[in-house]
Amino acid sequence: MARWSAEHPWRAIALWVVFVAVCFVGGNMAGTVEASNSDQAIGESGRADVIVNDGKFDNPATESVLITPLSGQLDRGAADKAAADVAAAMKALPEVASVSDPLPSHDGGALLVRVTMSGDPETAQERVGKLLDATAGVQKAHPELRVEETGGESIGQAMDDTLGKDFQRAEFLSLPVTFAILIVAFGALIAAGVPVLLALMSVAAALGLSTLASHLVPSTDTTASVILLIGMAVGVDYSLFYLRREREERAKGRNHLDAVEIAAETSGHAVVVSGIAVTIAMAGLFLAGDVVFSSLAVGSILVVLVSVIGSLTVLPALLSKLGRWIDRPRVPVLWRLTRPRAASEGQSKVWGFILRPALRKPAITLTVSVLALLALAAPALTMRLSFPGMEDLPRTTPAMQAYDRLVKAYPSNGTVHTIAVRVPAGQLDATKAALAELANRAAADPLFAPLDEAPDIEVSADGTVAVLDVATPFAGRSDQAKESLTRLREVMVPQTVGKVAGTEAAVGGFVGADVDYADHVKHKLPLVVGFVLVLTFLVMAFTFRSVVVAVTSIALNLLSAGASYGLVVLIFQGTWAEGILGFKSMDAVVSWLPLFLFVVLFGLSMDYHVFVVSRIREAVKQGMSTRDAVAHGITGSAGVVTSAAIVMVAVFSIFATLSTVDMKQLGVGLAAAILLDATIIRAVVLPSLMTMLGNANWWAPRFMRRREVPPATPAHERELVGSSR
Q: Where are the transmembrane segments (predicted)?
């Protein structure tokens, strides 16, 4: 494929451009099928969501205007006037359907006005600005009071503004940072630009293909972001591996076609194996039984496969067409630093010094390094899983500050359990009576919030679904909130609604979803891990014709993943790093992170491992001893692997600067794992292990062995050798 592309560059480039354009345009024309709530239903909370959706309730968007004193006691007269002004200002807006009467808090320290918005609740966030302006006007007229608005729409708008700026900054920084690192790695602008260009084109094609695939596997909001994240990582890596080997062969005197072919047989082969390994790791997400993970798996697999295809087709064509122009325009100082490495990789004195302990005393070096990584992984044993809640959102916006004051004054507006009931024919009155009894029993229980008003039992238009919200005054992730969920599910619901014949009841809400999803991940994680390990073992054993290489590859990647888990727990389940990274500890790891982090890390770590072991295996076939081959393979790949790792660590570290704790955890986890893999694993653990094993590295059963043609020899030269024989 590579030689044909190099010999017919314009055809290969044209076919690639057409392929990307057809994928992108075709995908946009087909449109995206978004995952529904029923697609994302997990556990009892998922069943509750399905029941509520089946009720087809008309749930308009609502906002809350809170009136409190700036200090001291609330002046009720002034507060009533402010509430009247709020009602008048809101009723004058076409975006408002109704305004409630003022509701005083139990302690008399606050006054609440609820506002119901008109129109489609899906677009309410776009229209909530007029309500915020009205509230600001009332605040200006009553400077002696605090008049502020909060609610789902105003908080959503504030978070979108904050997070939108975060993601824009991350996207703005990621490309220049990647390009700058590649300039340092290659010392030439065109050589640095080619990997970025191909990665972006692969991402564009994969985005189009993912929209087509959404008609089979519904898509979620995070799919596009993951495609961009994975696509830039593997796309740049694959091009780097290929480009550095092609430059190395040209520096040895090969012509362009031969250099491209050798790069394809060596680095290109490693890219294909790595792509298969990443695909297998991502395919493990399908076993999670979760549409979110399935959507991420589809997007990741597509962008990896497209990147592999691009590295074997359009990249050789570009290299053939550009020729030595790939090294133009040169950056004077950087070019002088990078050019000798391209011509004589494997002679790095720095890496020779780094490898010295592993090569001279492999057993001691291996023992110390593995024990250090296991110590770093140890905190993962105390990992707790949870969803980020309202308490984890940044408190820098007025809407979130108002929300905190609202929940303090009116606890029933905080964490809420949703009891959803399917009502059998003729049992509506009995069901409503049972729900009312449940609400009153909960109000008398200290685990639940007292009622601010009569229980609000919603019934669907056809009378088949009834819904009741029961609030708890405790934070969503607290032990008390989880205890209240258990009491509802195991005691209160069975003793009230459960006694009505034929009803189906489920308890949902944030706490229920949090508990159910954590249990779901704990149940599915071993299945996914087992699938990934078994198939990765088979791929590595088949590729390298060695059972030992396959086993050690898996062991080292597990060690790297475990260490990154431990680091995430150490940082985010404690408080010592809050000031450094700018977050508030949620005393837990985000529920979806361990599963997603494992498959991504296992896949991306295989990039480096396959590339390095391929160079070592290549040296062994050329007659070197295992010890010399290890030194040659690692130092020879040091430049390209280090550059690729720096790119990944830099991009992932940008995500650690985002405002939300889940993105911080993802960025830190990915960056830490890649850093550990490219340094300790590659420079210490791998060489010491392979040196200690010696020829045993290449052991395999007889049926797996085969006689292989030595690599790094162009096809036409092998033909000449064969004819002379």
A: 172-190, 223-243, 264-287, 293-319, 363-381, 525-544, 551-572, 592-613, 634-658, 670-698
Where do the domains of the chain lie? 1-31+187-344, 64-158, 398-515
Question: What 3-state DSSP class applies to 146?
Answer: strand
User: CA-to-CA distance for 101 and 47, rounded, in angstroms?
Assistant: 35
In residues, how long is the chain?
725
Pairing of strands 385-386, 589-590: parallel
DSSP state of 58: -
Res 715: pLDDT: 46
Give the list of residues 6+ apart from residue 271 with CB closer than 8 angstroms, or none: 238, 241, 242, 308, 311, 312
Q: What would the pLDDT profile of 696-714 be if each residue is shown by its tens digit?
A: 998 888 777 665 444 444 4
Cβ neighbours of 707 (radius 10 Å)? 4
Model confidence at 140: pLDDT above 90: yes
- 152 burial (CB, 10 Å; 0-12 / 13-18 / 19+) is middle
Phi-psi map region of 482: left, alpha, beta (phi>0 left; psi -120 to 50 alpha):
alpha
CA distance 568 to 366: 24
pLDDT at 377: 94
CATH number of this structure's domain 398-515: 3.30.70.100
Nearest to 557 by CA among 598, 508, 497: 598
Confidence category of residue 20, pLDDT binned at 50, 70, 90: very high
504-509 vs 145-151, strand pairing mode: unpaired
Write down the pLDDT at residue 452: 67
Strand partners, 386: 590
Q: Are strands 415-422 and 465-472 parallel, antiparallel or unpaired?
A: antiparallel
502's CB contacts (< 8 A; 6+ apart) are 424, 427
Residue 301's pLDDT band (boundaries 50, 70, 90)? Answer: very high
Question: Side by side, which strands form the sheet with 457-459?
Answer: 457-459, 465-472, 415-422, 504-509
CA distance 333 to 326: 17
Structural Rg of the chain based on CA atoms: 30
Mean pLDDT of the chain: 85
**C-beta separation of 643 from 179 below 8 A:** no
Domains 1-31+187-344 and 398-515 share a fold: no
Position 722 pLDDT exceeds 70: no
pLDDT band at 134 (very low <50, low <70, confident <90, very high): very high
* pLDDT recorded at residue 254: 80
Tokens describing residue 374: 């296991």
The contacts of residue 401 (CB under 8 Å, 6+ apart) are: 148, 395
Q: What confidence score (pLDDT) does residue 701 get?
A: 84
* Phi, psi torsion values for 219, nearest 5 degrees: -95, 160
* Amino acid letter for position 278: V
**For residue 2, pLDDT beyond 50:** yes
Q: Can you name the residues that pair with 98 across neighbouring β-strands? A: 116
CA distance 222 to 450: 38
How many C-beta neighbours within 10 Å does residue 494 have? 12
Q: 156 vs 373, which has greater pLDDT?
A: 373
Secondary structure element (H or E) that encloses residue 509, with its range: strand 504-509
Burial status of residue 62 (CB atoms within 10 A of its CB: 0-12, 13-18, 19 or more): middle
**Spatial separation of the C-alpha atoms in residues 164 and 414, rounded to whole Å:** 26
563, 676 Cβ separation under 8 angstroms? yes
Cα separation, 605 vs 599, whole angstroms: 10
Q: Find out whether 260 and 316 touch, Cβ atoms under 8 Å.
A: yes
Angle at the Cα of 342 from the Cα atoms of 338 and 346, rounded to 5 degrees? 110
Q: pLDDT tens, 308-334?
A: 999 889 998 888 888 778 888 888 777
The CATH H-level (homologous superfamily) assignment of domain 1-31+187-344 is Multidrug efflux transporter AcrB transmembrane domain (1.20.1640.10)
DSSP state letter for 147 = E
**Class for the domain spanning 64-158:** alpha beta
> What's the CA angle centered on 35, arms 226 and 287, to 5 degrees?
65
